[in-house]
Predict the structure.
Amino acid sequence: MYNEEIDCTATNYTDFVVRLTALTLFGPALPFAYCLLYFNGVLALHTNKFEILMLSRRTMPVKTKSIGIWSSIIEIVGFLGVVVNLCTCAHERRLRYLYSPARRLLSGKALAGFSAGNLYPEILPQYGLL
Amino acid sequence: MRNLEDDNLNYEYVPLWKKVLKVGYSSLISIVYAVLVIVTVLMVFALKGYLIQTSASESTANGVPALLIVVTTMFYNYLYKRVSKKLTEFENHKTLSQFESSVVFKQYTIIFVNTFISLLVYAFLENVIPQVQFCITKTTLGTFVSNCSLQVSDQMLAFSMISFAVDLFKAGLPYLRFRWRQFLKERRQRATKTNFGLNHFEAVDSFFEEQRSM
């Protein structure tokens, strides 16, 4: 019968990979998160060390070639990170362009009859357009 | 495939069609579960919009949906950990590594959807369903603010702080228990030393005293 405590060490990586995913996908939204999660990782490392040395039964040594399925998952997360960050940049850039003074200068008719205040009232003041 | 029991080189663990059916069935259940998670999160967002439009207090309008999202995330993660093990046992994998890979992939997929769907909604869905107004919040002054970038950074901050708090709790509780046991042990040893005149054999061997205390 399958016993998680003895057999499955692979699920222990879940927390780490979830944090890695958060940083890869949405880290640029809060740069301080990199710092916070770094210290979080150091703390988790010492927690696990203390738990293995002091509080649990001696772990069974198992020889492995790799981290298994986690390697593929991390690759997928890396790819998704590129896609999500590019989409975020494009999204922000589109908003910036839509309300930029340069656009108004380049095409005078672009904003004719366009009531921007109805669409993004929270963004316009940031660019001095409202 | 080689049979581990009788070295039969042409041994097939389960028929291929049966294996495909089993994996397909469990994948279907996982997909339905993921859709259920997404629908729940969207419903919480809709509830948030409704509360903001109707409720007077700012704390209710912002706090109740946040609490609901945390509770549903924890509940769905806990439930799926059990469900995924049952589903993978149903798939009947031949080796432990295959079993682990299947469990890990299932669990991670659902945790990913569960944890990051709200962030993805904040980041990209604001223009897709404009009626729901995902990013709108109510300020203390009673005015409405809709800033998705701010929402994403707030969510990231909450995620980081919760991870830090959970790790601190995980580290702190066993450490305190360990230190408490050590303190009790030292106190017992000190008491034994003070009672040296009564039980002087313990200076040589404390085995009997330890067994009695257990």
